[in-house]
Amino acid sequence: MIRITVIAYLISLYISIPALLNKAGYKFYYGLIPFFNIYLLFKVLEINPIFLIVYSILIIIAPFREFFMTVLVIFLPFMIGDAFETSLKYSFLGLILPFIIFPYIGFFHGVYQYDGGENLEIY
Q1: 103 and 31 in contact (C-beta within 8 Å)?
Q2: Biggest CA-to-CA distance, the chain
Q3: pTM value?
């Protein structure tokens, strides 16, 4: 049952990434490029790249890596909800029902708010 939930979580996140990046000012098809889409998502959520490198290494080598993945899965809906101006109830629902809320925020609801006036186009 847990594996099905994790698979549903990942599928909903990967379906929603192109729409989330499009709302943040990137081209839609950037969300379809593997690894680059995750990098851009974390850039949109304004997560420090040094933190991501250290966190990734800890996920790979730490004997208690489940803890690090759980922390990421718990905080990601709240970071997405904060970045796209949704209320706290959508963040909690994203934690419980991510396969419904992530596409809803990406395709229908939410406006990106972290844009500090900088040009986000990548050439």
Answers
A1: no
A2: 44
A3: 0.76
